[in-house]
Amino acid sequence: MTSHKSNEGPRRPIESAPGVLVHPAADRLLAAEHWLLSTHPRPKQARAEWADRGAALLPLGTLFSAARIPGALVQAVAATTEAGEIDAFLEDALSGPVICNRRHHCYYALLPASTPATWRDAADDWRTQDVDVLGRGCYLGVPPLTTAKASRHKGDSYWSVPMPSPAILCQPLTVARLIAAGAHQLAEAAESDKPRAVEP
Question: Where would I find the H helices in 54-195?
Answer without folding.
Answer: 71-78, 83-94, 115-118, 120-126, 172-193
